Amino acid sequence: MTTGNGAGTAGGGAMAPTGIERALSAAVGAGSADAVVELLARTRLYVLVARLHADIPGWTAPLPMIRDESTRRTCVPVLTPGMLPPWHPEWVFRAVSLGELARTWPYDVRRLAVNHGTPYAAMVDARPGRLKAWLRAEERSGGREHGRLLTDSGGPLHGPLAHGLALGAHLAVTNALVWNRLGAAYEDYATDRARLRSPWGIPHRAEYRDRLASLMKNQLVGRVQEAVLRTRQTLAARLGHTPAHEEWSEALARTFSARDADDRALAERSLHHIARYEERLRADGALAPDGRVDTLAAFDLGRAVNVVRLALGARYIDPYEAEQDVLRVGELARGAYSSWTDFSLGYLMARIAHRAEDDGPEAAEATYRQSLAEHRILTQDPTSPYRNLPWS
Q: pLDDT tens for residues 318-340?
């Protein structure tokens, strides 16, 4: 294993775009081929594909090949997440795992060129024996990492655009995707388009515009759940303090007295779920003793940012349109919340309450643990945008 251009060492070159490139550079600098493979086995890798080819149904373009002039060897080039180039309408990317590369490897190629020609490059041995080591490494790693905060040092880090993108950081952490990028891919071209189709029902640009408008108006988070919280908020404003559970329940019964039976039942269940998980959050130190969640709008607004990024990756919109959409979402979020912590708790509560309603308490328990872990990453990690960006 060697660096592609002699610069991929732990101590040299400019600051790496993300922690992945920093870790790769350190492994290369230490001369550890096994450490490089172990890292790549946990990392989403990308290959360049012409959009014309990517749009052919049921066909996967063969792996690209380049010639490395320093070694005069043919290589398969891949990129790590921080090294994707700017968005282009006709060139897209396919995400691959190290194991997938091993299983589809061209029989006459002996090198994998990671980030070729950059300061964060590695030339990885791809002879048949090493391909087996790639598969073993992927099996040990369990696949790509999740629950990780990734920041692009060259992406927006300050100002309104960074603020808007940070609203989507929960899902970025969930999937270990860079949170502050409007670029060539969100996850990858095919996946971005597939995610827009399901669960979002967005097969084209016009539907994207309609669905984004719904998210910006908080029409998908649940009108009954929002009414449950508004009832408590209104009562708290009148009383001058957060009402007791019984007071809230009685006010809710009055609010929903003219609604149909299904809405009344859903309201009662939602009150129970929200009250229960607020207590859990207080016990776990994530919510102040006198704190409460007043709106679940964060869930729609956070998802709206990710839908924008998916649409950009799917080539339904261009970077300028995506930027304007993210800025509009940011304005709405600042009107609905007063801090990153409140926004994050609103997102977390919506996710848990919906899971409890849809799939039951046992399923919600796993969602609670995962969501709380991600909330803590975003509110406690010193590199998090929630620690480095002012809310207003």
A: 999 999 999 999 999 999 999 99
